[in-house]
Amino acid sequence: MFEERRVPPHIPRRSARRSIAAFDAIAISVAVVVQFAQPQSAWIEAHYSTGIYPAIDRTIRAFTSPLPFCLGDLLFAIAVVWLVRFWIVSIRHAPGARLRAAAFALLRTFAVACAIFVWFDLSWAYNYARIPLADKVLVHDDRTDEDSVAAFADRVSDRLSQLADAAHRERIDGDNFAGRLVPTFDATIARLGTRDIFAPPRVKPTLFQPMMQLSASNGFTDPWTHEINLDATASRYERPAIYAHEWAHIAGFADESEANFISVIACTTSHDPLLAYSGWILVWFNLPSDVHVSHRMGRTAYDDIMEIRAQYLKNVNTQVEHVQRVAYDRYLKSNHVKAGYASYRLFIRWMTGADFDAAGLPRVRG
Questions:
Q1: What is the mean pLDDT of the chain?
Q2: Long-range contacts of 56-61 (CB under 8 A, 24+ apart)
């Protein structure tokens, strides 16, 4: 009898190779289409951001939210292990054709990266291309000059002074302030064009906590799993506003300045002193560095600001922070955010130049 000719275990069979090649071709082709055939902003706003995206978010979070761990962390670890093992096996078992093996491994890695990119765009990142808030919020340019910003900074100082003692009297456990943010958060995003309800996301610990501290990152939203992480060392007075910022990302506002604006409005329109205080703290740390503040801040608020600064200086590694900012700046610009990392502070222009109604919500173009 003839002995069956076996294929070495590290070499896929012909049918498997065909399937893999088909996957590579499809993944790369779809990624090219997603990248270069993006619909207009009005279409994305109507059919994605306020169309199918809320259902996408509910579907993803129905699976990820109940998990006691951060699925995004697990997937990242699996991806790294797979990538390292894949390259080692590919090169090791092709001693006579390592250049060819490396080329195929590179192609396969690129195809997988394309699949991840498609998931990234379709599951969340299309929101970068929705109609920007700058086209929705009516801003008076004559109220965004240096004097206007200085007057606004004085108001921020006053509000912090007025709210500090009441905020300190509040006692909450963990991040259970989320439920108290719901009414003003829902009202804020509804005013800005999103009438769907986005449930408060669950805060989970992350393996990247050390990196968050070193890079001075207060929070992170995983666009693939729709999970959020907050810096565990952040002050209890910062956390509500940081949380609302990440929640705004979950609600489909990808731009950083828009997320800051939503966070500030949702917090400062609340009758809860801690939430309002947190919102004004977020504003304070995003004021221009050269702004002139003439109003004296109260002692309690001043001590909180100094404590937050001290915690930042204790944790941050300036080199890591610089690398992270450069990388994130390039990432934002590649996703149609022209201002890049500087976009975080652009919402100050809306805070000074926009009109607000009696409820504290911004007036938008009809």
A1: 87
A2: 56/122, 56/123, 56/124, 57/198, 57/226, 57/250, 57/251, 57/252, 60/123, 60/225, 60/226, 61/199, 61/201, 61/226
